Amino acid sequence: MRNFYIIIILFVSNLITAQNFANEIIIVQNEISKTITKENDRINLKKQPFTIQFQSKFHNSKKENFNGLKVTVVKNEADLQVIEEGNPINLIPFFEEVSAVLPDSDGFYSSVVISDYVHHYLFYENDTNKSIQLISKKNEIGLFEWNVERFYLEGKEFPIESLKENKLTFIILNDFNSNKIIDADELRIVRVQFD
Fold this sequence. Notes:
signal; five-stranded mixed beta sheet; 195 residues; EF_Hand_1_Ca_BS; mainly beta; Outer membrane lipoprotein-sorting protein
């Protein structure tokens, strides 16, 4: 009977500590919202600025909880290695810690770098240590937004309106439980068609 209680306790504790995370990515352009809930999705946008909104835990340098969103933007995803649930994050070259694009001196990204070698690390620790804006918070989870107005490609920075590419792929990873593995619902691959 004692073993039965131990199994029940382990089962309940596993349910309590399980990852409860929907990873909804919301893309807002001209007051129109598109919610991304599937691992692979396609959307159409105009060649105008837009905002990416997402939920994440707060970054905490002291506790070494590096929570946030990793975003890679590529022109051609055919050359990329397969990225899927169960992969260790450190084995994906463009998501390694050393491949993060450095933000501008104000801590934010003025341009989105299009490259299959790097990622943007979007995080919020406090009002001074952040690379994104905090919209709201509830306990240890925040709702954040990243404004996309400019791109950087092949050594040149330009506004979205001047983008020559009509298709880009956004690879978005939120390691919500910080286990350095891509778990269910942590990855979103969004293929954007610009009209």
